Amino acid sequence: MAVVTTPATLERALPAMDDAEVLRIRNDFPVLNQTVNGQQLVYLDSGATSQNPLSVIEAEQEFYEQRNAAVHRGAHHLAVEATEAFEDARQTLADFVGAGYEETIWTSNATEGLNLISYALSNATLWAAQGRGDARLKDLALKPGDEIVVTEMEHHANLIPWQELAFRTGAVLRFIPIDDTGSLRLDQARDIVGPRTKVLAFTHASNVLGTINPVRELVALGRSAGALVVLDACQSAPHLALDVKALDVDFAVFSGHKMLAPTGIGVLYGKQEILDILPPFLTGGSMITTVTMERAEYLPAPQRFEAGTQRISQAVALAAAANYLTETGLDRIHRWEGELGQRMVTGLESIAGIRVLGPAAGKERIGLAAFDVEGIHAHDVGQFLDSRGIAVRVGHHCAQPLHRRLGLTATTRASAYLYNTTDDVDRFLDAVSGVRAYFRA
Amino acid sequence: MSLDQLYQQIILDHAKTRHGSGLAGTAAPEGAATGQSHQLNPVCGDEVTLRLAVADGKVAQVSWDGAGCSISMASASVLSEMAEGMTVAELHGVIDSFRDVLRSRGKVPADPALLGDAAAFEGVARYAARVKCAMISWVAAEDALNQAS
After folding, report:
1. Does domain A63-326 have CATH number 3.40.640.10?
2. Cis link prior to A214 (omega < 30° from 0)?
3. Is the Cβ pair A440, B71 closer than 8 Å?
4. What is the CATH number of domain B3-20+34-148?
5. N or C: which end of chain B has fewer CB within 10 A?
6. CB contact, 8 Å: A392 with chain B?
7. pLDDT one-digit tens code per residue, A121-173
8. Chain B residues close to A440, C-beta within 8 Å
9. Which member of A79, A351, A361, A398 is catalytic?
């Protein structure tokens, strides 16, 4: 059964989030109620993975206690119950991002979703060459001289699958560069995206810079070039109201574990008319109609792209997570996290020796900030913060080319979610202000 | 365990002074056999290139270039300071002992008589994420030693 999204008018009527509400929200997250190194945990690593509310943990437990069975097969009671729960979850996630039910495909995570797209396009190339499948596959096929365009700020998950697709097909991988503030060079994008572009893949929000990319402009560029447009929504779907139809992207991917759900579940959205002709990536059980010893016929989407026994309890838990976010209100969450992000950057910029990556204070960013501490390696910064009970991410955040572009190898990143208070940010800032003195930089 | 037990004074000092740092400026002694090893920790980007010269069965010189956290830089500094003058067998013994301590999750105490200043890294063993930081130059030294002897 579909969960009705809160109408925008109703959501606007709700008051903005504040610390008092966040403290109530925090009660729903058992893991946050603990001390680390003698101090109340401040969890600022939700950009890497988020925590689960009780409703999500209980949804998964309830599934295993009452309905666990294989889906789409078996006539027994539990199989029916499990299939209903699994498919209801699909409808919930479809509604969550404005997708159609049959356009909503389960994956393990966004990385798998992006690999699915890139390998399905490989297969489209092979099928077209062999005259297999739909005649329109030749429009999806890549050949030497075709171009795949990404951006310089991509997570490795939205870079390496395209590198490999280029190697397999002879296509050329190009990228839209960034400027020193971390914004995409749209002026250059207009020259880079052109008639040769077959795929344009980019992130909605940067996991390092915190920037929100101009999706509409990029989609318009992709459309005018006749390219497939792929959106990495890992850092947006959990934090703002996403509408894949309004954005008019061809594909979008995101991971459940970054939006209050367990690991091992993610979503791939694909436009119906593309999924209708796209060959599968993984093959095997559950995705076929007729099988002989020589060949097989495949089901339509979404089943065509869901070979083998699925992550059923995780899908059910992800639906519970989507409901939790919808009930809280994604626009409210987005605004709250925007405030936390601004508080981080304003505070960090006032500390000597700190260089914040991405937009300066006052400019739009999501609720995260990555930074360099002059003379101190990010690992030492992270260790120092951990000793004060503060969890942050250190390293290249799976974006080596971006760090290299900015002249860095590793940075420290604090990333907030709906369960973080302004006090969390202030404790983080207070700790950062002591780092250089401790290491005598 | 407190932060100060991890970042002992000796570690913070060596992270600053970096004994043996600078490959370009140091030529290996005449007639010595040399080995060189580059090690990278892809998790954090820590990098060490270490060259080791052996003459008459003894470590004649250790020099290195590197970039990384204070634990990794201090560890390379301590290693290069203590390795010079050791026999090949002695350095192998120290490397083995260091590895045992670091990989023990805190169960194997460091022997200060054998490990000297390197015993200060004992606390790192309790931080699984940092063990590779302390080990990176020692892995490079073992590799270079095998090449040179």
Report:
1. yes
2. no
3. no
4. 3.90.1010.10
5. N
6. no
7. 999 999 999 999 999 999 999 999 999 999 999 999 999 999 999 999 999 99
8. 12, 16
9. A398
